[in-house]
Amino acid sequence: MEKVYTAVVTAKGGRDGHIKSEDGVIDLELKAPKVMGGEDGYANPELLFAGAWGACFLGALGSVGIRDGVNVTQATVDVHISFNKEGTSSYALSAELHVHIPGIDWDVAQKLADAAHKGCPYSKATRGNIDVKVIAD
């Protein structure tokens, strides 16, 4: 495997902390969501993960679209990252990726979404580790 790019982000303080990228592009205060005892109006790890996965997934979908000759430039994906309790002190993530490709029949959209899920680096990283559903809307 050949490294193409490495992102470096320093995190301090956990869910009620701060993250800053080495290049200064990201410089965010984090808070747990209100439902988890935090405050509204702040980023949290699940929001950041959802955004990053969605952007990466659309990149993979674009590659699949080019390969299959289908225009997916207007596609969107709503990534739902859930923080789930698995017992008294154990937690796990789950995800749903809701993919919308305007002007495409549902069965073709689902096939393209499934192919993108196979190739997306974030999807590969989570495969077999968390429950993930990919749903064409």
UniProtKB/TrEMBL annotation:
<dbReference type="GO" id="GO:0006979">
    <property type="term" value="P:response to oxidative stress"/>
</dbReference>
<protein>
    <submittedName>
        <fullName>Peroxiredoxin, Ohr subfamily</fullName>
    </submittedName>
</protein>
<dbReference type="Pfam" id="PF02566">
    <property type="entry name" value="OsmC"/>
</dbReference>
<dbReference type="InterPro" id="IPR036102">
    <property type="entry name" value="OsmC/Ohrsf"/>
</dbReference>
<dbReference type="InterPro" id="IPR003718">
    <property type="entry name" value="OsmC/Ohr_fam"/>
</dbReference>
<dbReference type="InterPro" id="IPR015946">
    <property type="entry name" value="KH_dom-like_a/b"/>
</dbReference>
<comment type="similarity">
    <text>Belongs to the OsmC/Ohr family.</text>
</comment>
<dbReference type="InterPro" id="IPR019953">
    <property type="entry name" value="OHR"/>
</dbReference>
